[in-house]
Amino acid sequence: xxxxxxxxxxxxxxxxxxxxxxxxxxxxxxxxxxxxxxxxxxxxxxxxxxxxxxxxxxxxxxxxxxxxxxxxxxxxxxxxxxxxxxxxxxxxxxxxxxxxxxxxxxxxxxxxxxxxxxxxxxxxxxxxxxxxxxxxxxxxxxxxxxxxxxxxxxxxxxxxxxxxxxxxxxxxxxxxxxxxxxxxxxxxxxxxxxxxxxxxxxxxxxxxxxxxxxxxxxxx
Length: 220
Description:
By secondary structure, the protein is α+β, with helices and mostly antiparallel strands. About 30% of the residues lie in helices and about 20% in strands. It contains seven helices and eleven strands. The protein has helices spanning about 25, 45-55, 55-60, 75-90, 105, 155-170, 195-200; strands at about 15, 20, 30-35, 65-70, 95-100, 130-135, 140-145, 175, 185-190, 205-210, 210-215. Helix 2 (about 45-55) packs across helix 4 (about 75-90). About 30% of the residues are buried.
């Protein structure tokens, strides 16, 4: 079965560039971004890994850990990291999972479970579905899933924006509208009655339609 939003992210043990981990233990009480790559030494992924390293402090500020995965051994990741630093200006400063037996890729539905063998001899095209982003909450539930084609670089500024929304809406009974940015107005969720909304938002709200109740972003 394909993973769905709200499912518990599958736990696993794996070797990474920063040592062996058990995934759930490694996440701890943080948020997490797991982003995957079809093969080391691929051009688009090289740009992504470098940019993710550059903006890691922004994820740190959100109590969000970053971890990458590529369908190759950890030793290859170390060599690739040198290329990433040379070409992008930043080397990965987060762990990279080695998945040469394709175990994590299969566990997360990125590789068909009936695929046999290891990563050896497989090309990026063979692994092209390993281009996903999973955002995982501290309770280990999956909050966001994105899968991109190999030809389209991912927008990690958008992932940051989405995490800010996820954290805000997990704490307050609001939703964020189209193209929302941190600090902008939000929408009271339909599950909140007008009576409850009056208690939560005593200054009132703007309502161009009864079901669209706009308020300033809650603080705290």
